[in-house]
Design a protein that fits this description.
- InterPro entries: P_starv_induced_PsiF.
- This is Conserved hypothetical secreted protein.
- This protein has helices at about 1-15, 25-30, 35-60, 65-80.
- With about 80 residues, it is mostly helical.
- The chain is elongated.
């Protein structure tokens, strides 16, 4: 029963994850970054996204597995595909 509740919470919160502006990879491509500059930019962007997602999880009062899953998906969405 707990797994069903957690799954329902995760899907609900995953749909409301922040998708503000372009992803980190899209921003790096737009700025035409390569090499060390791109790596540095992506690392900082992912760190900023993680902080933002942690704040969103806290705002939604998530804890445990639901918080971890929400944060992981939120950061993945913010970073985008390479």
């Amino acid at each position: 029963m707990n797994k069903i509740i957690v799954a329902a919470l995760i899907s609900t919160f995953a749909l409301s994850a922040h998708a503000e502006g372009p992803t980190c990879n899209a921003s790096a491509a737009e700025k035409k970054l390569v090499g060390a500059a791109k790596t540095s930019f992506l690392k900082k962007c992912e760190k900023d996204a993680a902080a933002s997602c942690e704040a969103a999880a806290a705002e939604k009062k998530l804890a445990g597995a639901a918080k971890g899953s929400f944060t992981k998906k939120c950061v993945k969405d913010a970073v985008g595909a390479p």
